Structure formats: C-alpha cells, structure tokens
User: Which sequence fits this backbone?
C-alpha cells in the first residue's frame, strides 16, 4: 500500500474516531468532512506545484514528518498550555512555518524538493490542527462545528503556502550558494 493512501486512511479514521468520542455522530461527521477538506486542500497545492514543474522523484512524505510534527506542536501548544498562549501570534506561526519550509529546502538542496516537502509539512501540520480544533470545539457546549470547518480550510491552506514558500526559497538559496561555490572553486 502506498504511504499516501495509508496516511489518508489513518487521518480520516482518527478524525472520525476523535469526533465520535467528543461529539457523538455529529462530531464524527464534522471531523471526517473537515479532515477530507484539509487533505483536499493540501493535495490541491501539490497539484499546482506539480503543474509548475515542482514534482519530485520520491514523493514519499517521510522527510517532511519531523518538520510537520514540530509545526503541529507549535500550533497546538497554545490550546493546551496556558503559558504558551501568551506567545501565540500569527506572525510567530508564520515565521515558524517559513523557517520549517526553509529548513526542508536547504536539506533537500533544490527549490522543487523544498516546495514539495514544504507543502507537505505545512499541510500536514494544518490538517493535524484540525484534530485540535475537533477536540477543543466539541468539548465545549454548544459545539463549535463551524470553527472546525473553517480551521480545516484555513490551517492547511496557510500552512501549505507558507512552508511551501519557505521550502522553495531554501532550495533556491542552496542552489545559488552551490553555483557560487562552484564558480569560486574554478
């Protein structure tokens, strides 16, 4: 089984299970739709990147997993840790996503790889945040199901865009330094 499909099944199953646990049948349905929307947005970003020529030979998401985990932790911390709530701001989140993408771009050594894996990492963190939104929204009464659906669109889209841009920039900088270093060595 391809890792992409296995991750999709795991994400949908986990979201439906969490939604059911905290919100019953309505929570399960909302969580399933929200994760499907989020994954669809990330796939849309990847399709646009592919149309722009940013395809990679090995598109398995594993290089992006550590960055996605750190970004998700940064997004989730303010929801669960009161001390982290004071540090939360859009600017800090944006900087974290750009830095994560930049790291992937430099590690990949290519703007195309950086863009691709930046989109994956930022999108995965955004989809992961949907789980946080499901838990937080359905633990309150009345349930904030509309917040879950908005988060399922905004978090993956912004995460994919920021981390993808950072990845493309990191890869481009890496290429530029490699070219400049090659000229200096001659």
Assistant:
């Amino acid at each position: 089984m391809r890792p992409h499909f296995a991750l999709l099944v795991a994400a949908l199953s986990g979201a439906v299970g969490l939604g059911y646990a905290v919100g019953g049948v309505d929570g399960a349905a909302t969580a399933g739709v929200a994760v499907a929307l989020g994954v669809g947005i990330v796939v849309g970003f990847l399709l646009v990147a592919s149309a722009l020529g940013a395809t990679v030979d090995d598109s398995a998401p594993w290089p992006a997993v550590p960055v996605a985990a750190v970004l998700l932790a940064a997004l989730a911390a303010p929801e669960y840790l009161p001390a982290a709530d004071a540090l939360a701001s859009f600017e800090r989140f944006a900087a974290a996503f750009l830095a994560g993408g930049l790291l992937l771009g430099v590690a990949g050594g290519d703007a195309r790889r950086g863009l691709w894996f930046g989109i994956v990492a930022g999108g995965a963190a955004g989809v992961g945040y949907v789980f946080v939104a499901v838990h937080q929204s359905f633990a309150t009464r009345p349930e904030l199901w509309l917040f879950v659906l908005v988060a399922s669109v905004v978090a993956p889209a912004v995460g994919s865009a920021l981390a993808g841009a950072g990845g493309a920039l990191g890869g481009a900088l890496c290429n530029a330094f490699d070219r400049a270093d090659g000229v200096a060595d001659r």
